[in-house]
Design goal:
The protein has 338 residues and is an alpha/beta fold. The chain is built from twelve helices and twelve strands. Helices cover 43% and strands 15% of the residues. The strands form two sheets. It has a six-stranded parallel beta sheet with strand order 2-1-3-4-5-11, sandwiched between helices. The protein has a six-stranded mixed beta sheet with strand order 7-6-8-9-10-12, sandwiched between helices. Helix 7 links the parallel strand 3 and strand 4. The radius of gyration is 24 Å and the shape is elongated.
């Protein structure tokens, strides 16, 4: 069926999407013939238009033209100043999957106080869907904005809403297993250094650490736990206090923090692992470039990005999807914990 075979009553993209329970992007693709979409969904759209009748050709064409075949990848603004292998690999996975499906990816920087770039992309219909690279506990301005525009989205991370599209690594299980192995190897006073607790990834890693301590009959000691460590000054202050508690192991939330802590310890004349063990809850190539090499949890960041992009595009094309997907990990023990 083509547009000229439709009769003359106005039927909007929004009306069709609400009636069929699909996104406006899916309706646009069905009408334009562009983008991947199941034949069943395409037939449903045309059947609705034909039954509800007399669609104005210009109006339908205008709605179909709204599809941009772009996706926005939202990255926290401060990540611009950081060298993060995890983010680069995630971006690579997102971009490769998007390209396979005929989409381009637009980077978008945002934070809790500034979502203007994302708002412009949504307001100007520059993107058909959004992928968030980080999730926040509680209120998330980016999510609120996306939902207000009714644009499909997926997240790299965890959301409380189980119906929302989300792909995450098992952060709790990973931190739990790493901590358990450290305990089994003889550590009893394991200090924890983590980042902002507003991010779900950091909250989950801390939860896994605490669970492992309790499971092994060890107390969760507040004096050994430092979160909100986001700057060099905060890290150095935390390390000063931690070392006064005489820990036998330091567990860092990510690769960048663990490398900096290793340098700090060397500057203080503290030998790793002879005097103090060190481990990271995220692995990257940089951990292999230092001596000793650092034990870490290994995730496949590229596959995470690929899975999130695939999940979003499958949902946008009308496919039935499993909204919450969890990916695995591997604990790699190296010289720093021997």
């Amino acid at each position: 069926m083509d547009f000229d075979s439709l009769n003359q009553k106005k039927v909007t993209i929004d009306e069709i999407a609400r009636a069929l329970g699909v996104s406006k992007t899916t309706v646009s693709r069905a009408l334009s013939g562009k983008g991947r979409i199941s034949q069943q969904t395409r037939d449903r759209v045309f059947q609705y238009v034909s039954v509800n009748g007399r669609a104005q050709n210009a109006a339908v064409r205008q709605g179909a033209a709204e599809a941009s075949h772009n996706l926005a990848l939202v990255i926290p603004s401060h990540f611009v100043h950081l060298d993060l292998p995890f983010l680069r690999k995630c971006m690579g996975g997102v971009c490769r999957m998007a390209d396979q499906r005929g989409y381009d990816v637009l980077l978008c920087y945002a934070n809790s106080n500034d979502t203007r770039q994302l708002e412009r992309q949504l307001k100007d219909h520059k993107v058909d869907g959004v992928i968030l690279s980080r999730t926040l506990l509680g209120s998330d301005p980016c999510l609120d904005l996306i939902r207000s525009f009714g644009v499909p989205f997926a997240v790299l991370g965890r959301l409380e809403n189980k119906a929302a599209l989300q792909v995450d690594n098992d952060q709790v299980g990973a931190a739990q297993d790493m901590t358990r192995l450290l305990i089994q190897s003889g550590s009893r006073r394991i200090a924890y250094i983590g980042g902002s607790s507003s991010y779900t990834v950091n909250a989950d890693r801390l939860a896994g650490y605490c669970q492992a301590l309790r499971e092994n009959g060890l107390l969760v000691q507040k004096e050994l736990i430092f979160t909100e460590v986001e700057s060099d000054e905060q890290r150095l202050d935390a390390l000063d206090v931690i070392l006064e508690q005489e820990p036998d192991c330091l567990l860092c939330c990510d690769d960048a923090t663990s490398v900096k802590v290793l340098k700090d310890l060397k500057a203080r004349g503290i030998l790793v692992p002879k005097q103090l063990r060190l481990a990271s809850l995220y692995d990257s190539e940089i951990l292999l470039t230092f001596s000793p090499t650092i034990s870490a949890v290994q995730f496949d960041a590229a596959s995470l990005g690929t899975a999130a992009c695939r999940l979003l595009l499958d949902s946008m094309s009308g496919k039935d999807v499993q909204p919450r997907q969890t990916m695995g990990y591997q604990v790699i023990l190296r010289e720093s914990t021997k």
